[in-house]
Amino acid sequence: QSVLTQPPSASGTPGQRVTMSCSGSNSNIGSNYVYWYQQFPGTAPKLLIYKDNQRPPGVPDRFSGSKSGTSASLAISGLRSEDEADYSCAAWDGSLSALVFGGGTKLTVL
Amino acid sequence: QVTLRESGPALVRPTQTLTLTCTFSGFSLTTSPMCVSWIRQPPGRALEWLALIDWNDNKYYRTSLKSRLTISKDTPKNQVVLTMTNMDPVDTATYYCGRMLNRGLIEAVDYWGQGTLVTVSS
Questions:
Q1: Hey, which residues 5-44 in chain A have their CB within 8 Å of chain B?
Q2: pLDDT tens track for A41-79
């Protein structure tokens, strides 16, 4: 069972906007930065969002991150078929002195 | 350009010790705020952080695996080594190393290695 809670699945149609949540606690999301990763089967995670809402170079502005209290969200606008992947959130947990991950959300583009 | 690459055995027998090496470039693990972590992902399951070492040789371990893990760094070689003792089939996973930063707050992984699949089987 993951420390950060993510819905196991999400779906949308091309062009749609989808959001996925990541719920934690004061010791992780509430006091540290949230990172989001995109992962395709058989490949390493790719950094999508860092420091809650920052995009690395090369990540389209269709991807955006936000945080409020002990929860964070990833939004994808203008959904494309190539966005079909697993999305995971992560944050340092000061109480555990550990990096904690969500269980991942599998996004299906219908 | 930051790169990391994992290396180690693809197959380990139960009860054996696993030794994995992360060779990195594009940063130095001798200066703040650099850190390197090991993370694993069992097939079809979520990412699971294992251990972190920072530029000042501070080390953090996953509580449930602390007795089995040792992380160390070889600064001249730009390498971080993870050993895991008493391997079990449940430890079968893809093992990744990744760079992290500690700028007052410890941040998550910004660069990942490609990963190496380790299978534990007799």
A1: 31-35, 37, 43-44
A2: 999 999 999 999 999 999 999 999 999 999 999 999 999
